[in-house]
């Protein structure tokens, strides 16, 4: 049985596709193929471009789903104020895989963006 992998990201409205791609590639070099990309639904436009560049499908999640996620390992004041979750990246990665998912790369911070990686064994 193969693991399912999700790369979650959070981003400022000013983050570029290139900013997000750089962080993902630095944090999880094997990101291309065999994974999914996940983020907050209001980042869908940049998310679609990132997903296309990586050749990955994308899952867009509403803030209400992200705010219900448990098991996050980091805390962002900004994410808490705007989305009511401790980490958009971690919550996106976990939520997109469902129950039983666990983080393998906790939130990493780049230029105006964050990413995290979760697996579902």
Task: Write a brief structural summary.
By secondary structure, the chain is an alpha/beta fold.
Please give a structural write-up:
It is a single chain. Helices cover 36% and strands 29% of the residues. The protein has one domain: CobE/GbiG C-terminal domain (Nucleotidyltransferase, domain 5), CATH 3.30.420.180. It is an alpha/beta fold and 121 residues long. The chain starts with a strand and ends with a strand. α2 links the parallel β2 and β3.
Helix fraction bin: 25-40%
Total number of distinct structural domains: 1
Q: Extract low-pLDDT stretches.
A: none
Structural class: alpha/beta
What's the CATH H-level homologous superfamily?
CobE/GbiG C-terminal domain
Which CATH top level class fits? Answer: Alpha Beta
CATH architecture: 2-Layer Sandwich
Instruction: Tally the beta strands.
Output: 5
One letter per element, helices H and strands E, the order comes to EHEHEHHHEE
CATH topology: Nucleotidyltransferase, domain 5
Gross morphology is globular
- What is the percentage of strand-forming residues? 25-35%
The largest pleated sheet is described as: 5 strands, mixed
Number of helices: 5
Please give the radius of gyration in angstroms: 12 Å
Give the spatial strand order of the biggest sheet.
3-2-1-5-4
Rounded to the nearest angstrom, the distance between the terminal CA atoms is 8 Å
Q: How would you state the average pLDDT, rounded? A: 92
């Amino acid at each position: 049985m193969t693991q399912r992998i999700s790369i979650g990201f959070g981003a400022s409205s000013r983050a570029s596709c290139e900013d997000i791609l750089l962080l993902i590639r630095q944090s999880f070099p094997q990101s291309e193929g065999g994974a999914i990309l996940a983020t907050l639904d209001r980042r869908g436009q940049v998310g679609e471009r990132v997903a296309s560049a990586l050749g990955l499908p994308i899952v867009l999640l509403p803030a209400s789903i992200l705010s219900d996620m448990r098991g996050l390992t980091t805390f962002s004041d900004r994410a808490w104020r705007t989305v009511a979750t401790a980490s958009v990246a971690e919550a996106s990665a976990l939520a997109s895989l469902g129950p039983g998912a666990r983080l393998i790369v906790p939130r990493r911070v780049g230029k105006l963006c964050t990413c995290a990686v979760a697996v579902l064994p």
